[in-house]
Specification:
Keywords: Glycosyltransferase, Golgi apparatus, Manganese, Membrane, Signal-anchor, Transferase, Transmembrane, Transmembrane helix
Strand order of the largest sheet: 3-2-1-4-9-6-10
Structural class: alpha/beta
Helix content: 25-40%
Membrane topology: Single-pass type II membrane protein
Strand content: 15-25%
CATH class of one domain: Alpha Beta
Radius of gyration: 31 Å
Shape: globular
GO molecular function: hexosyltransferase activity
Cofactor: Mn(2+)
Number of helices: 9
Organism: Brassica napus (Rape)
CATH topology of one domain: Spore Coat Polysaccharide Biosynthesis Protein SpsA, Chain A
Largest sheet: 7 strands, mixed
Number of strands: 12
CATH architecture of one domain: Alpha-Beta Complex
Order of helices and strands: HHEHEHEHEEHEEEEHHEEEH
């Protein structure tokens, strides 16, 4: 019989082909099994209770980290109807980043006039942005304490997030707050035991020495809860409200996390003092806007009407 190399080659190729096919089938089966096990593992972990003591606390998702809830309480007077309407335009036309909730509320004490009972009630029906505290109207005799200490009871609904706000702020009605800049400054900061604002005295840059200016200061929610429960503020209510607030924080050893927002917060540049600063892009708040001229200069500088849409209904040069 004559030897044929070609026939031996065919004998080698055919088994090799079937061997390769078998390897591919085996790899496919193993991949399916691995994916099934991985899916089963994910399903099992998703059913583990979040409060299990044997597991570490779950990391915040990016959406949780981006979410910030802020309450800005503007302390004002019941009769300041025109100022409130003006500020509603100012804050209602500001854009805030996605995932951020900022509620602006106007805060004053009990109504004392018949016209207030009608006009303020109409405001509430239309805008729902007013908090009436159970107090006699005042500036430096406990109004700020009543505001902060009332918040835990005012916002204790069971169907709201906990805490309802990460930060709560007290601001004057002659302060212009740029909400987007405020949010940007808060993102890297702690959400507990925080005391934030423009440190006094004006030349100082150390937030641990004195206190934050009444133009607008902010604390984390847990400090509002502490103010409600502590006896410290109740013993010392009268005096310049921002200084007294700083006294409470110091005596109660609160505000271990502090942030001095100077010079992104400042007084209007005129008349010049040690507390003023020129208007500039890196601004969170401008204080002492005591008349319309100062408001208009400030709003023009920050070009607040740039988003006005063109229309045949109006012509604004």
């Amino acid at each position: 019989m004559k030897y044929s190399p070609r026939s031996d080659g065919r004998k080698f190729i055919i088994p090799s082909f079937f061997f390769i096919v078998a390897l591919c089938v085996l790899a496919f089966i193993n991949e399916v099994r691995f994916d099934s096990l991985l899916s089963f593992g994910r399903c099992a972990l998703s059913n583990v209770p979040r409060n299990s003591s044997s597991l570490e606390a779950p990391l915040l998702s990016s959406s949780d980290e981006d979410e910030i809830r802020i309450l800005i309480g503007i302390l004002t007077l019941p009769d300041q109807y025109q100022r409130r309407h003006f500020l509603r335009m100012i804050y209602g036309t500001q854009d805030v980043p996605a995932g951020v909730k900022i509620d602006v509320k106007f805060v004053f004490c009990n109504l004392t006039k018949e016209d207030q009972k009608v006009l303020v009630a109409l405001e509430i029906m239309r805008y729902d942005d007013i908090i009436i505290l159970n107090c006699n109207e005042n500036m430096n005799k406990g109004k700020t304490y009543t505001y902060f200490s009332s918040l835990p009871d005012l916002f204790n609904e069971t169907d709201t997030p906990n805490p309802p706000y990460h930060y709560v702020m007290k601001a004057d009605d002659d302060t212009y707050i740029r909400q987007e800049s405020l949010v940007a400054s808060l993102r890297p900061l702690p959400r507990e035991d925080l005391y934030y604002g423009y440190v006094i005295p004006c030349p100082s840059m150390d937030p641990f020495v004195h206190y934050m200016s009444g133009m607008g200061y902010l604390v984390s929610w847990d400090i509002a809860v502490w103010l409600k429960e502590s006896e410290i503020p109740k013993k010392h209510l009268e005096g310049p409200e921002d200084k007294v607030f700083g006294d409470w924080i110091r005596e109660g050893r609160r505000g271990k996390n502090r942030f001095n927002a100077k010079w992104s917060m400042y007084n209007f540049p005129e008349p010049p003092t040690r507390c003023t600063h020129e208007l500039w892009p890196d601004t969170i708040a401008v204080h002492l806007l005591k008349n319309q001229e100062k408001w208009i200069r400030t709003l023009n500088y920050f070009n607040v009407t740039s988003n006005l849409k063109p229309s045949k209904l109006y012509h604004i040069p």
